[in-house]
Amino acid sequence: MRIVLVGPPGAGKGTQAVRLAEKLRIPHISTGDLFRANISRQTELGKLAKSYMDAGNLVPDEVTIGMAKDRMEQPDAEGGFLLDGFPRNVSQAEALDRLLQEESMQLDAVLDLEVPEDEVVKRIAGRRICRNDSSHVFHVTYSPPKQEGVCDVCGGELYQRDDDSEDTVRKRLEVYHSQTEPIIDYYKAQGLVVTISSLGPVEEITQRALGALKREDAAQ
């Protein structure tokens, strides 16, 4: 299957992308991984992306599209892939359509993870990170530390990242609504969108997604 995964910040896209790709036995292609891989390998696209990032500018769509094209042409993606973080806007979605048409391929589904805005704010703004080790992550509601403000693992101080403040989260949601959400309507016009609720336990959401994708595949 060839799938695009969309949803607002805090919808759990990263977690679900990894799980779904593993269960469907297709590569998980994320924008973040593409950038890191190209920059670390010092590819031409990686060097170009880094030059924009170092200058504090957004990486142009054509650079992101070029990286995605290279990755989708790798042998492990012949049987399908799951795109996470790309396309991020309608122009990228249109470019993806052109790429797939050139290769005589098409998307099978666009999986939209739906979550109420207040829940997004609660999920992200409630995160607390250990200053000693950023892999130690807690949540004031869902996974609170035994002692407030103290990491259970190493005793380090827990803090809220600036990116996780409520004001910042709401600004990120505004960007999502204005730039990324329009691709849902774009793909709805093609009959590709499958919307599921991203509320509940992680495994339950995964099974919900797999069931929806299976029904979509059977309907084609």
UniProtKB/TrEMBL annotation:
Biochemical pathway: Purine metabolism; AMP biosynthesis via salvage pathway; AMP from ADP: step 1/1
List of residues binding ATP: 10-15, 127, 137-138, 200
PROSITE patterns: ADENYLATE_KINASE
Pfam family, one: ADK_lid
EC category: transferase
Subcellular localization, as worded in the UniProt entry: Cytoplasm
Catalytic activity reported: AMP + ATP = 2 ADP
Family assignment from sequence similarity: Belongs to the adenylate kinase family.
Protein name (Swiss-Prot/TrEMBL): Adenylate kinase
Protein source organism: Streptomyces mexicanus
Gene designation per UniProt: adk
